[in-house]
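[recover] target loaded
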């Protein structure tokens, strides 16, 4: 991990991503840390962690930004072109470890793609 100077705020946000497997919305993160830091600090730390290849972001179904821990990303390149899944019942969002091949297009270079699958998670299907 390329994070140079670890502040108390940065460590707090990092620990959330290390403890949880699912993606977290920016709204959830701002609410979780509202007593410890202002939302500008949360946004700044998220941007820094994404630039360092620690987390990646994607847009959810309702236009919210979501963040999830990277597996093999670096400061030079994000290797996170994978689909995400959103449970329509409980709202949980998670990365799916599926290989998706993004098609090549003539006269265009594709840098990123967002694929959001929606349905019921395994826990909600059991209910």
């Amino acid at each position: 991990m390329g994070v140079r100077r670890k502040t108390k705020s940065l460590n707090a946000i990092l620990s959330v991503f290390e403890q949880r497997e699912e993606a977290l919305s920016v709204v959830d993160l701002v609410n979780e840390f509202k007593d410890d830091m202002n939302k500008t600090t949360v946004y700044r730390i998220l941007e820094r962690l994404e630039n360092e290849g620690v987390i990646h972001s994607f847009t959810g179904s309702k236009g919210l930004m979501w963040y999830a821990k990277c597996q093999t990303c670096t400061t030079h390149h994000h290797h996170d072109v994978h689909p995400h899944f959103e449970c329509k019942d409980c709202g949980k969002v998670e990365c799916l470890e599926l290989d998706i091949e993004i098609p090549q297009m003539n006269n265009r270079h594709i840098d990123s793609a967002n694929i959001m699958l929606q349905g019921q998670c395994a826990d909600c299907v059991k209910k």
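[recover] notes: The chain has one domain: 8-126.
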